[in-house]
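tool_log.txt
---
The assistant was asked to compare two proteins side by side. It first ran the structure predictor on the initial sequence, then on the second. Raw inputs and outputs are pasted verbatim so the downstream comparison step can read them without reformatting.
(1)
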Amino acid sequence: MLLEIITPEQNVFQGEVDAVFLPGKVGRFELLKDHAPMVSTLKDGALVYAIGNKKESIEIGGGVLQVINNKVLVLAETVI
């Protein structure tokens, strides 16, 4: 699935990933390929994405998330 992370200042990341772990307002959650469409708010914390066996982490300062057609769009307020 395609993950795109954007802040008001810059495009932080865009690429194909296998999984995304996010800091939701009501708790952490995971997204995998073919996830149902959704919109969610995010709190400050680590956004972790996996490509194969490799995981990368980006600290975000809150934001919103949209998932549709295997595209995960994260509009982060800031990247810490």
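(2)
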Amino acid sequence: MRNVRFTVLALLVAAATFAAARLIDNAYVFFAGYVVLQYIVLATAWNILGGYTGYVNFGTAAFFALGAYTTVVLHKTVLVLPLPAMMLVGGVISGVIGLGMGYLTLRLRGTFFSIATLAMAVVAQTLITNWNFVGGSRGAYIIRPSDSPIFSGDYIQYLFVVMLLLSVISVSIARAIQHSRLGYGFSAIRDDELAAEASGVPTLKLKLIATTLSGGLMGMAGAPLPYYVTYLDPASGFSLSYAVNTIAMPLIGGTATWLGPVIGAVLLGTLQQVATVTISSALSLLLVGLLLVGFVIAAPKGIVGWFTR
């Protein structure tokens, strides 16, 4: 019942956010807001594995790009599906890949696991670069629909609404996990995996659940990307900024709670969009680095940890 009330409240906040964006009456608000919402989903998904369970994943860009290239494949092979259906397919594929990656790598711990996920991202990018059907290294152009199912003539607003709903779903899932038996199992693994296993916690099973959920949500976040950018190549799909931001945002907001990634994504994503418009797009990663260093020194447990200590 508590989770239902939270979901309803989150939907009301989402509706208020959309109404405020419409009142501003500036197309760039939806264009930039989509990126911030996308990072809320990515940061929340990363936190399920990296924050709740304690396994740092450097392969975020791989799951995100798999979702994006799933849309490219569907766009080229079948009748164009509705965007939510494409997102669901991208999430399933990325979730299955996450399950397979977890089964192969979760016996590793600490730095070794992180290096393995980074290697997986490199392998995935190499395969996509050499796959001519999806454009290979030259990339692929995707024609964005002229009309959306909701807003006539403004597909960006439709993308904004879809990502807004996905962010509500992902945050609701993360909150439900945090206050459930599954979340307590994740916390036990993070605090002391050997002790948890000795106490009867099915550590491998729980870690596989975490990798599957995390990968699936990342894939769903990446699926609308081809319609957002209209041109997708391996360099943009597997961009370093996705991996860096997705790790930095939960660390800045706080990794021990569902709220931390949301705060970090809104704060850092908004600052990056403002810097892109006012100064330079090249400043975004510099902002990430400076804020991350500052918070590691001043608030190692993030903004949420700073206020709840």
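---
observation on (2): DSSP finds 15 helices and two strands in the chain. The chain has one domain: 2-308.
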